[in-house]
Amino acid sequence: MTTPRSRNPASRFVAEMRPLNDWLEKYEYLIQLGDELPRIPEAERTSERAISGCQSQVWVAVELRDGRMRFLGDCDAKITRGILALVLAVVEGRTPQEVAAEDFDCIREIGLSTQLSPSRANGLASIIQRVRRLAEAHLPH
Known about the structure:
By secondary structure, the chain is mainly alpha-helical. The chain has one domain (9-137): Sufe protein. Chain: A (Alpha-Beta Complex). It has helices spanning 9-17, 23-36, 78-91, 96-101, 105-109, 112-115, 118-137; strands at 58-65, 68-75. The chain is globular, with a radius of gyration of 14 Å.
């Protein structure tokens, strides 16, 4: 498997997940993505970086370098960590304007939102909402 931060990750995720036969295989794929996600150091797992609305503990950190957003994320649950890895890979290295406008169609295309439990679906929505807010905070005023 290629790294989750390759050039067009949204298209790559759709292409790689589409042929998987069942959701057990797709969840295994998500877990593998999560295993590849660099961890946020323990000291940086602050309440400001925590995402409310997730059943699991989830943290997202961002910095702006050369006009591009660089994300770190972490989670204490394997599948949610994989979902976080997918979302962050879609927006990694993009401008705040691009991130704020991202529609995350790849999630619909792979059918992820329809297969998640209500608590994980809420967590996914909360992760996307946080990523957008972080992008909006970095937009020029």
